[in-house]
What we know:
mainly alpha, 59% helix
Amino acid sequence: MPDVHRTVDAAWKLESAKIVASLTRMVRDVGLAEELAQDALVAALEQWPVSGVPDNPGAWLTTTAKRRALDHLRRSQRLERKQEQLAHELGQRQDRQQGPDARPDDEPDDVLRLVFLSCHPVLPTEARAALTLRLLGGLTAEEIARAFLVTETVITQRVAGAKRTLAEERVPFELPDGDHLAERLSSVLEVIYLIFNEGYSATSGDDLMRPGLCLEALRLGRLLAELAPREPEVHGLVALMEIQASRAAARTGPSGEPVPLHEQNRGRWDQLLIRRGFTAMLRARGCLVDGESDGAPGPYMLQAAIAVCHAQARSAQDTDWAQIASLYEALARVLPTPIVRLNRAVAVGMAHGPEAGLELIDTLLTDPVLRDYHLLPSVRGDLLARLGRDDEARVEFRRAASLARNAAERAFLERRADELGAAAPAGPLLGRAADEFLGRDDLDAATSRSYGQTLRRLRRTLGDQQPLSSLTADQVTRVFTTAWGGAAAATWNRHRSAVRSFGAWASLDDLTAGLDRRTGTGSAVRPLDPAQLDAVWSLPDLPLREETLWRLLHESAAGVTAVLALNVEDLDLDDRRARAGSGSGAGSGAGSGVDSRSRSRDTWVSWRSGTARLLPRLLAGRTRGPLFLSDRRPGPARTPEASDLCPDTGRRRLSYERAEYLFKQATRPLDPARDGYTLRRLKPAPRDR
């Protein structure tokens, strides 16, 4: 029995993409196609242990799935005029599929169509990756969730949402034409490389790598190269992944710690993968010469060329850094992203000295995309250490460690900081000073939270180890420009006020000297119209907490902060109202700019039948604590105020930021701009109240 189950699993992973692709062509619905394919898989699990494994497992699964599809078409009375044609085609294909090596003659096009469908730009990036692994990789939701370190429910929701979006947008199951092929192909390559990168350098978790994802990405890349053999960028991506994967065994030490490229034992690099990468690169160049393009290599070919330079060097000292820097310069012209510019700075630092690299790095410090990217301070710390500026390098390595979500990388960066020796006495540090400032008795809870949000950004950007005496107005201005440059006037002024208060408390020079106070009235928020509201209430599988919060915001016309600040003991369920003003706040953004005297005056939030129906289920017997709770208990490093903790569950009050994010994500498919709605738009227009 275990052998049969392993055979079924292997056959499914090999054939699932072809089966789903072929069924999608028949029923024109990728969600339905996957369900029918799953029915065939269940049939195999039921029948093969009894009847034995067929000679051609893939053909058996395909035939069974297509019979299910025909039955469905007949039952639903769709495509009646095509039924005889489909049945005739099925009979012909069954004849061709009897041999062990037989394949349907239209399979390659169907699978290629499925690739473009699952990676369609109408889907969010994370949904594309999940759907691609599900449909083309044959992975279960549990396997995908384990690979990306999220829950199975999250993956199930992403896949279901992706299939629903494809159906709602009526995305056709067809290959894009010549005008759109390049654009759509770039989306496919982006998804495959995203999967590979997550496996090659895991963003979170304990391990540096997740080999399973690397293997899946390589398999998908090789499949795509077979399906689109004349596309140079496809072969370029395969070459890049093959060569990068060749270093896998040398990238970690005995304890799983990262080993930098220049310290790796090149004898452990997989020469077979390197040769395969070189071969793919030759194919890419051949396609470029023979194709109709202008002969200029694309971003994946350029990155593959950089990987080839590393693979050809017998030792780290033999690496042609000048050539690599030149290739990065060309890549930055084709793909001018902050990450590419960061990598170029590394190459320039190796080719022309650390000062040249540091000069380029410092131009990236105000880039919003890199503000919490741990490799920016890591690279900067390395360049500073090479220049002998150990104290500055130590601060950068500590900051990089605090930003790293991967445990192995975090430990590595901490060791880099420790290797530079103990810091010279420099007086108070930013992290310790911020904690003391926020811990004062004369700050009420809401003000402390508001100040804490500002100082948390300052600490993440500059590092807890920044000596307070070296904190300057220029550094603060850089933080503000990066974090809140596009913020509303009220938000900008609130953070500015917090920094002024902190600077005055710490007896520092005016830290806001470079920050002018902003003026502005703000723009009116346009409430959702009745049709938009109906679409919101009709969203499938709404979590109880979100549905209750959204209904309460709409029916009460109260502010988001006021509603999130409600406590269970403030509720009067019989009169359908709650006392607002006695709660302590709603997360890091609550109470901002509100005087403590005004908070002491009680106001009331009332609601109607929709909220009244949901509230008892949400409470589930709770009699105290915040009404709306977060999903998880807070970590030891972020212990909230006691008034923001539920004494029964240990979970904290739901924050404004998290509530806003969840609403935007849920309503993104409903928003024509694909940005998602804001919670403030749930507030009804004055005439509707």
